[in-house]
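Following up on my earlier thread - several people asked me to post the actual chain instead of describing it. Fair enough. Here it is, all 307 residues.
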Amino acid sequence: MKTRVTELLGIEYPIIQGGMAWVAEHQLAAAVSNAGGLGLIGAASAPADVVREEIRKCKALTDKPFGVNIMLLNPNADDVARIVVEEGVKVVTTGAGNPGKYMEMWKAAGVKVIPVVASVAMAKMMERAGADAVVAEGMESGGHIGVTTTFSLVPQVVDAVSIPVIAAGGIADGRGVAAAFMLGAEAVQMGTRFVAAKESIVHSNYKEKIIKAKDIDSTITGTTTGHPVRCLRNKMTKEYLRLEKEGADFMELEQLTLGSLRKAVIEGDVVNGTLMAGQIAGLVKSEDSCEDIIQELVRDASKILKL
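Reply from S.P.:
Thanks for posting it. Predicted structure:
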């Protein structure tokens, strides 16, 4: 399964772990990289010194390539962008904005830049800005989402740009990997499956919710605010959707979810926390090691593609 993405990133398999806030820390990133994929540290809104520490901890656990995901709306984004260069990280994925102002600095340092996009227009813009590849993420994914499905988005992005395309959203097994390749993608990015990995620091309550999830157990909050988020249904989402229906303003809705992701990930509060997960959660049936997950994905996808 060698592609332009594996060559670009120096990895064995075209499998990338999503840069999920609170979830994608050094242990998970190192485990994915050691298993032959590309692990990512999710900088999210963390202070710059915390991101630097996470990078150094990851280096201590792996000598394989790994990357950092930078949310460009993070007030610390400028510092994190610089730290990536100072620490010799060779891959950056970006979300929530245009990484153009950092491109010259990253390129000079040999950093491979891979923005996450939710539209053809954004993919074209990122290619013009100098991106090495793009992640085309469909609305099936967990967390912050766009409006187009993976099956529709990926082939249109593939046709629109010449750089490699990585498919994300609704992929959890070898069938999903094979389907992404048939649509023209040269790698996949996965989040939900790795949330439930053995090496994930996510609380066991959260993992259990994913493992027990059915196909209809996710919902979308924040549609009225312009910042839709896909997560598993619970008491918090029920209240959030009620307030949205009643016309609550942004600040009232924001207050309801303040710190809720940490509650779920760290404290295991599956009632009031935000359980970010994709629609594919219903396919995640067990807590497996990153090594086992990646070997299963590659084995099953290879069989299908050979057929």
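The two ends are 14 Å apart (CA to CA). That should answer part of your original question.
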